[in-house]
Design a protein that fits this description.
- The structure holds two protein chains of two kinds.
- In chain A, the strands form two sheets. A six-stranded mixed sheet of chain A has the order 6-7-8-3-9-10, with helices on both faces.
- Chain A starts with a strand and ends with a strand.
- In chain A, 34% of the residues lie in helices and 27% in strands.
- By secondary structure, chain A is an alpha/beta fold.
- Chain A has one domain: P-loop containing nucleotide triphosphate hydrolases (Rossmann fold, 3-Layer(aba) Sandwich).
- Chain A is globular, with a radius of gyration of 18 Å.
- Chain B is α/β, with parallel strands linked by helices.
- Chain B has one domain (3-105, 150-314): Rossmann fold, CATH 3.40.50.300.
- Helices cover 37% and strands 25% of the residues of chain B.
- In chain B, the strands form two sheets. Chain B has an eight-stranded mixed sheet, sandwiched between helices. In chain B, strands 2-1-4-5 form a four-stranded antiparallel sheet, covered by helices on one side.
- In chain B, strand 4 (63-70) and strand 5 form a beta hairpin.
- Chain B is globular, with a radius of gyration of 20 Å.
- The two termini of chain B are 34 Å apart.
- The chains are: A alpha/beta, B alpha/beta.
- Chains A and B meet through helix 5, helix 6 and helix 7 of A and helix 8 and helix 11 of B.
């Protein structure tokens, strides 16, 4: 079933002393099919990250609907919405901020398994599975987030969200902070995983070459509106 | 073109507990007036440390050896007061994060004017006019408004252009730009590139540009130095190296680009506290031989460039 947004609008109040409404998204409609990667491009402030957060259920639109398996996610029952949040996962530009700096990577991954309902006897196996998916060396488990590279952190972020076997993955500038050789490793890993699992992806980036490489379709946002929706054209 | 900067056998290391982090090892290069040299390499390869060493901004615990000569002056032995005068007046610096380089409590106009008042005898009124001119050249149509802004009221791209305006307002002979486009979106990167192209055309300024963005390096560089694990592994004419890289790491780096198929280099860069013996790139090199694992290669001339690779030298 596709993941779709219909006529999404989002406004914020902006300003330090006098609050003025500011329209970030102005009636955006978009559909992502299973197995498809949609690249989302646009300048800073064009509304890319706001759309991503709304799709992931982390933010509510001012108006419009987010449809998953035919239902509006904000009209779902609590349990259905929880299941939606597991099915549609998000990877952020700076995944280090999503890792607890006081915990080793091993402890953080154990938490992921525990929260996914894995019993104590299956946790070790679950952590091994996450390491395999991310192509990570078991040595990282005893390290803290500040002791590993940006590329390794992004692999951990991917492994962590993929453990929930999502149907859709939203990636907000996942390679912007990485060097080109590490970026190539992450993009190839993502392609392999997508081929194996058939999940749909929304890949947000301002790097045209990266978006063209990874996407089946490229959507451009400008001033809160979709200005184009076309094949990557390579 | 006469020589402006001459760096010989520069090494920088840091001691942390029982570990010694060798951030830069035995780097030598020179820079002529009006030349643009780009240092390219992955995060942690030592590019920024070289920029900080030239600018005299390394922390006191850094262990520095080798020579850094600017206009025949040894920058390591001149008094700090002289170094401060050079920095900002003759040597301009654009740091990686513009929001951190600007003071959040002062307006943009105040901060750019400060450079002029600190280093020249100009009056406040004269400096005001100079700031307005610099901002206009940077593409701001109404400098009066921009001068009254605080850094938080501007985007990352605008702040970067303010920093470039501040660093170049006294027309330094040498501009060191450390990752000036990192974190900016494509159109803002284009603004910064355009500004550098204007500087290169209109002002007689040598530039050391440090970046991991190969597209930016290709656009701006006369000469390029590729760095890996604290060393220069290939250095020469930028166009020639982009057309035909010699070193296996340079080839791997260019092959990682999306337009070249995103073919990753296997493995990861070594931690600078545990440098491998032999060639530093050998654990990741598909063409390594026994000599690569055993002997550390020297930087030697092949055709039109310097290369640090046993294989390239034996061919």
């Amino acid at each position: 079933m596709p993941l779709a947004v219909e006529n999404i609008e989002k406004s914020y109040l902006r300003g330090h002393f006098r609050k003025v409404p500011f329209d970030v998204l102005k009636g955006v409609s978009l559909e992502i099919q299973e197995g498809e990667t949609v690249g989302l491009m646009g300048d800073s402030g064009s509304g890319k990250s706001t759309l991503a957060r709304i799709l992931a259920g982390l933010d509510r639109p001012t108006s419009g609907r987010i449809l998953y398996e035919g239902s509006d996610i904000h009209r779902m029952k609590r349990s259905e919405f929880r299941s939606y949040r597991r099915s549609v996962q998000m990877v952020f530009q700076d995944p280090a901020s999503a890792l607890n700096p006081m915990k080793t990577i091993g402890r953080s991954l154990e938490d992921v398994a525990r929260l996914a309902g894995v019993g104590s006897d299956g946790i070790e196996e679950a952590v091994k599975e996450m390491l395999a998916v991310g192509g990570l060396d078991p040595e990282v488990l005893r390290r803290y987030p500040d002791q590993i590279s940006g590329g390794q952190i992004q692999r951990i972020a991917l492994a962590r969200v993929l453990f929930h076997r999502p149907s859709y993955l939203i990636l907000d500038e996942p390679t912007s902070a990485l060097d080109v050789s590490v970026q190539a490793q992450i993009l190839q890993l993502l392609r392999t995983i997508q081929k194996e699992t058939g999940m749909g992806c929304l890949f947000i980036s301002h790097d045209e070459a990266v978006v063209r490489f990874i996407s089946d379709r490229v959507v451009r946002l400008a001033d809160g509106e979709i200005s184009s929706d076309e094949p990557p054209g390579i | 073109m006469s020589r402006l900067l001459d760096i010989k056998n520069l090494s920088v290391s840091f001691v942390s507990g029982e570990e010694t982090v060798r951030a830069v090892t035995d780097v030598s290069f020179d820079l002529c007036e009006d030349e643009v040299l780009t240092l390219v390499g992955e995060t942690g390869c030592g590019k920024s440390i070289i920029a900080h060493a030239i600018s005299g901004l390394l922390p006191p615990e850094a262990l520095v050896s080798g020579e850094i000569r600017y206009k025949e002056k040894d920058l390591q032995s001149i008094p700090e007061e002289e170094r401060v005068l050079l920095r900002g007046c003759e040597i301009g610096i654009v740091l990686q994060n513009p929001s951190r380089a600007l003071n959040p409590l002062y307006t943009i106009g105040h901060q750019i004017r400060e450079t002029i008042l600190r280093h020249t005898e100009k009056s406040k009124e004269e400096s005001h006019g100079m700031v307005a001119g610099a901002l206009r050249r940077m593409g701001f149509s109404d400098p009066g408004i921009e001068m009254k802004r605080y850094p938080f009221e501007s985007s990352g791209g605008m702040n970067q252009r303010f920093v470039i305006a501040s660093s170049t307002i006294l027309s330094p002979d040498l501009l060191i730009a450390d990752e000036p486009t990192t974190g900016l979106d494509r159109s803002r990167i284009q603004d910064v590139i355009t500004e550098f192209e204007r500087i290169m055309e209109e002002e007689e300024m040598a530039i050391i540009l440090i970046t991991h963005d190969l597209a930016v390096a290709r656009r701006l560089a006369d000469r390029i130095g590729i760095m890996y694990a604290g060393e220069v592994v290939e250095m020469g004419d930028a166009n020639r190296i982009f057309e035909e890289p010699y070193h296996p790491y340079t080839k791997g780096l260019f092959g990682s680009l999306p337009e070249n198929g995103c073919v990753p280099i296997p493995g990861v860069s070594p931690p600078m506290s545990r440098i491998v013996s032999g060639c530093r790139f050998h654990p990741r090199c598909g063409k390594r031989t026994a000599v690569c694992e055993r002997d550390h290669p020297q930087l030697g001339m092949i055709d039109d460039r310097y290369v640090r690779c046993h294989l390239c030298h034996s061919q």
